[in-house]
Write a structure and sequence with these properties.
seven-stranded mixed beta sheet, two-stranded parallel ribbon, 11 strands, binds pyridoxal-5'-phosphate
């Protein structure tokens, strides 16, 4: 099976499994799991933040961050198609009484500052209190520029707003920009980083931020049932991923470009040249026929999105391209 639906489908490799097998563990709710502690320190170090918190998923990382920044009656502003708003079951509203306000992303994956400004609520009892801005990076495979991030950050600080980044794929963004994640993280109070996407770990994310925000997020994590005990078993996979798999993302990006170019030369229109590991088909292209044909060849795609990841080899890519060629020629 060649699975291009998402980079979440990667399997832990042999060496990662060995690291998990031999992990030293303790009770993390007591703060006594050395492997979890090491993962949290490593993530904090890479992002140049005070502290890290190992969470069960990206969704949990985003939720505990929003719950830490906002109280009941507060408002967070996010993209209309943002994971933090659209794909997390409405958690901030359901569990925190926190109202979402949404703005469409522009074609670069940004929230334009003039539109953000127009959505900030005045100090008036009719309104919820604007408290938090959330960005996503990468957003639909696009890396936000450091110039934009710096303007965004200045805007938030000027308006006394907290800044959270859904950095599920922050390493893809950093590689695309040719910088370390520290440069991106400098513009945010908290950042949620997925270990289980392109980095290849089976489970988990890390939230990083200052001591106060992370202490608060730790309380919320416990309340949400995310206080795991001998979690070092899974944290070990995360450490392995940070130690060995970051630079491999570049290969995923290279393969996405090859795939995009090949599709285009077959007359299958793509939305734009991929920046990272996601090839987006043109919205006017109906992918259902292609999807059905690929299924007969044991290849999975999800709608308009084809995602490369560490379990897609150059040979797999050629198999996919050949199958697409067959589809076009039928
Ligand atoms: C995958 C993803 C998350 C987190 O997802 P989980 O499945 O909960 O780990 C958050 N944001 C974005 C943009 C994602 O792609």
């Amino acid at each position: 099976m060649i699975d291009l639906r998402s980079d979440t489908v990667t399997q832990p490799c042999e060496a990662m499994r060995k690291a998990m097998y031999s992990a030293t563990t303790g009770d993390d709710v007591y703060g006594e799991d050395p492997t979890v502690n090491l993962l949290e320190e490593r993530a904090a170090e890479l992002s140049k933040k005070d502290a890290g918190l190992f969470v069960t998923s990206g969704t949990q990382g985003n939720l505990v961050a929003v719950l830490s920044h906002c109280q009941r009656g507060h408002e967070y502003i996010a993209g209309t198609e943002a994971h933090t708003y659209l794909y997390e079951g409405g958690g901030a509203a359901v569990l925190g009484g926190i109202q979402p306000c949404t703005i469409p992303f522009n074609e670069k994956g940004e929230l334009p500052l003039d539109i953000l400004e127009s959505q900030l609520k005045p100090d008036d009892s009719h309104y919820a209190i604007s408290r938090l801005l959330c960005l996503e990076n990468t957003q639909a495979g696009k890396a936000l520029s450091l110039e934009y991030l710096s303007e965004f950050s200045g805007f938030a600080l000027k308006n006394n707003l907290k800044r959270h980044l859904d950095g599920a794929r922050i390493f893809n963004a950093a590689i695309k920009l040719g910088v370390t994640i520290e440069k991106i993280c400098a513009n945010f109070d908290t950042i949620s980083i997925c270990l289980s996407k392109g980095l290849g770990a089976p489970v988990g994310s890390v939230l990083v931020g200052d001591h106060q925000d992370i202490a608060s997020a730790r309380r919320w994590r416990k309340m949400l049932g995310g206080g795991l005990r001998q979690a070092g078993i899974v944290a070990a996979a995360g450490i392995y991923a940070l130690d060995h798999n970051i630079l491999d993302l570049e290969e995923d990006h290279r393969r996405a470009q090859i795939l995009a170019n090949s599709l285009q030369s077959l007359g299958i229109q793509i939305l734009e040249k991929p920046q990272t590991n996601m090839v987006m088909l043109h919205p006017e292209f109906d992918p259902s026929g292609l999807q059905k044909h690929l299924e007969t060849k044991m290849i999975k795609i999800s709608g308009h999105r084809l995602v490369t990841h560490r379990d897609i080899s150059d040979q797999d890519l050629q198999t996919v391209i050949s199958a697409c060629k067959e589809y076009v020629n039928v």
